[in-house]
Specification:
With 322 residues, the chain is an alpha/beta fold. It has eleven helices and seven strands. A seven-stranded mixed sheet has the order 3-2-1-4-5-7-6. β2, α6 and β3 form a beta-alpha-beta unit. The protein is globular, with a radius of gyration of 20 Å.
Length: 322
């Protein structure tokens, strides 16, 4: 299983790590845990940037359960699959004040951060953690009222099977929320004054090619049309609504956002640099130069704009209990 973008850590960012470090999968997990112990890890940085979106998404999910009192009473157990450092777990716990949240991830280091974050916000008694690595482990904590999963399925070979595993953990009437894709982060103008115009579009294309190549090598890799409402329906659920959330930090950027862009570009160069031509590689290196005014740490034109799409579906109650 490769390392997830954004709020989840069970599956991992397409830009996060090499395909298979020396020493096999165990070595990969150990290497990632060492990296995730650093405060500058992209998952931690991005989690802070996305905290506002996650709070808004959790509030929207609360509304899908009906009036406020009914929603609060209906949701008592929540599963956050691919929890990463626990930002979504915190947002869900705050939106559903009577619920207990189980944060599930394959990274022990990120789960430790999730526990620390919960303690910092007075939620340690309501947020617990569990380490898991395979889709069939998702349902072991069930039944639950709400499942949130952020950017996990795309990194699993059989996305449909993963959704079925998640659906099997729901109580009748429970809701599955799947955050997948949306729009990739944009942070540079078309012409940045160095290299060839259109660098951002070529970086996006290189990432998409890398994602496709990696998916083909995943265990049990199965090609599906990534129509998430259709995939959720095929998992036995009834689609309950889709919403896209905009995340925007306009120029000029504050330092924490700039640091995240610097970390992201560094990971991107290591991950897809071989797919870029020499001019684009040199341009990215210039953007990474912390002492140059053309670098992303100093540029006045750098911004951050992305969108995350959340698809929801419900497990209908049996007719006899309707």
């Amino acid at each position: 299983m490769t390392p997830t973008h954004g709020t989840g850590g069970l599956a991992g960012d397409a830009l996060g790590a090499a395909d298979e470090p020396a020493g096999g999968p165990g070595a990969e997990y150990e290497a990632e845990d060492r990296a995730e112990d650093r405060a500058e890890h992209p998952a931690e940085q991005e989690a802070e940037l996305h905290a506002g979106f996650l709070a808004e998404a959790a509030h929207w999910l609360h509304g899908l359960f009906g009036p406020a009192d009914r929603a609060t009473a209906a949701v008592r157990r929540i599963l956050d699959v691919g929890s990463g450092p626990g930002t979504a777990s915190r947002a869900l716990a705050e939106a559903f004040p009577r619920a207990r949240v189980l944060a599930v991830d394959r990274s022990a280091a990120l789960l430790a951060r999730a526990e620390a974050r919960a303690a910092e916000h007075g939620l340690a008694d309501r947020i617990t953690t569990q380490r898991a690595e395979r889709p069939e482990e998702f349902a072991r904590s069930g039944p639950v009222d709400l499942i949130w999963t952020g950017n996990v399925c795309r990194h699993l070979g059989d996305q449909q099977a993963a959704l079925r595993s998640l659906a099997s953990a729901l109580r009748p009437g429970g809701l599955l929320a799947v955050a997948e894709r949306g729009l990739p982060p944009r942070f540079l103008p078309r012409d940045i004054g160095i290299g060839r115009p259109g660098l951002q579009a070529r970086l996006d294309a290189a990432v998409e090619d890398q994602v496709t190549a990696r998916r083909s090598r995943l265990p049990g890799a199965t090609s599906v049309v990534e129509d998430w409402p259709c995939l959720l329906a095929s998992a036995g659920l009834v689609p309950a609504g889709t919403r896209t959330f905009l995340i925007e930090f306009p120029a000029p950027l504050d330092l924490p956002v700039r640091r995240h862009l610097h970390t992201r570009l560094h990971a991107l160069l290591a991950d897809v640099g071989e797919r870029l031509d020499l001019v684009d590689r040199l341009t990215v290196e210039q953007l990474l130069d912390g002492d140059a005014c053309t670098g992303v740490l100093w540029r006045p034109d750098a911004f951050y704009l992305t969108a995350v799409t959340v698809h929801t579906a419900r497990l209908c109650r049996p007719l006899e209990s309707a």
